[in-house]
Every structure is written in structure tokens, then in C-alpha cells.
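Hi everyone, sorry if this is the wrong subforum. Our group has a chain we'd like a structural model of before ordering constructs, and none of us has done structure prediction before. Sequence below.
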Amino acid sequence: MPHIPPPDRDGFTGTTPVPLYWCAYGAGEPALVLHGGPGASHDYLLPQMLQLAPGRALHFYDQRGGGRSRHDDDREPITWQSQVDDVGRVMREMALDRPLLVGYSWGGLLALLHAVSASERGETAILPKRLVLIDPAPVTRAWREEFETEFARRQQGPTVQALRSELSASGLRERDPAAYRQRAFEVSVAGYFADPRRARDLTPFRVTGRVQQSIWASLGDFDLRPALAALRARAAIPTLVVHGRQDPIPLASSEACARALDGELVVLDDCGHVPYVEQPAGLFAAVERFR
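Answer:
Right subforum, don't worry. Here is the predicted structure as C-alpha cells:
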């Protein structure tokens, strides 16, 4: 497992309905990074995403219901609206005035939902100055279903099946249980990669299943495209969308997102859903050009 350096500062929020764990690295331009999931935690983006830190005060937090921001009250399901509310509260508490907002996977969709909601309410102080969306989750339910079908197909494909067989025959479970758990996690997400064999040296994470389910259910039969077009008309936010060409998430979704926001689209070849591991040079160069 990669080494994750300790943060420069960290703690728990005091203004959110549930205390949320946060941490920060570096100094300079305020930036907030939203992790994927939903129901996961920020740390699986590390250490690679720290390449964004030079010249930036880079903030992460575990979204409500995941990581160290666990929420065990089943009487109050976590929805996309509660996650959007948390984004605004975190920005205010951390004094992140008009930050760069970076969203990865589900975090990309969350960044868009936050920007739409803040602009509709006229809350300009928490509108992002710029948006960087890295392989954002699909912006329609139809593309979401297409992604789920494609990812399942890849996980049952011959390459991933061979990786499972190789791990099973390795004797690693008995010889080194920790290494076995690490490799088992990597194989479980290998279908996200352009080449599943490159799913190595990843920081493992867990997804709280009921949180993931409740958030996706709360979105219903969603189609964010009209709301994004309206966002562009109200508050033109410079936007960069980066998408791996071999991502199981349809490229058409990121194309539609960039088009609706009049943003820049960068497509990385030989790259799936994890560009910070598969094509870090291309990813971080694109973000740096967008600075």
C-alpha cells in the first residue's frame, strides 16, 4: 500500500449536522477536493492527488456516511441534497472563499450539483472559482446504467478472471494475509482500468453500501444537462473535464458536461477511470495548464 504523508492540519467540522473529518496539505490558492463513492472516503486519492498541492491549500474531507465521517442514524437517509449542503458548510467553515473545486468520479457529480444549487440560491460566496472534474460520474441515469453494465462486464472478463485465479493460486492468503487483502482489493476494482493488470499500489477503501444506495436513489431518474446549461447562463464557471478514453463511464457523459458548461475536455488515451494512477503526467499537466 502506498505511503500517505500526514496532513499539515486536520480535524472535524463543527458546523455540519454530522462532524466531518477533514485534512489539508500545502498553502496558497484555496482548493477543495471531493472524493468519489458515494459512501467512500478521501484517502484513496492519496498520495497521488497531492501532486495538486504545490501552490495550493488543498483540502479534503470524508463525505457524510463514509470514512471517519460515519453516520449511523438509519432514520435519516443520506441524500444528494444533504451532501450538497455539507459542501457549502465545509467551504464556509474552512473559509474557502470561491475555491478551486476538484471532483473525482461521484465527487465530480457532487461538485456539479453543488454549483447548480449554489447558483440557484444566489450564494456566490460558495460558488467555485473554477471546476476541475476528473472522470465525473454520469450526468444522466441512462449513462449511469450504461456504466454499471460495462463495469460488470469487465469484472467478469477474461483478464480480471485470470487475475482472480492467479491470486487464488498464489498462496498469499496464508503466507501474508495483509498483502492478500491488498491484492484482493486491487483485483476488485481492476475493471476500472484500461489494462486491469495495472491495478496495483492502490490505497484501499471501503464503501458504505447503504449510503451509496440512498444517495443514488435520491437522484431518481436524473438528467443534469438542462441544469448545467442554466448554470452556465447564470454563472459562467471555467471548467476542465478530464476523462480516460477507456473509462467504463461513457465518454459521451463527459462530452455533454463540457459542452453544457462551455468547458475544456481533455481525453487521456490508454486510461480508464483512475488517471491519477494510470496517466498521472497527462492528468496533472492538464490541470496545471488550467491554472
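For your construct planning: The chain has a mean pLDDT of 95. The chain is about 40% helix and 15% strand.
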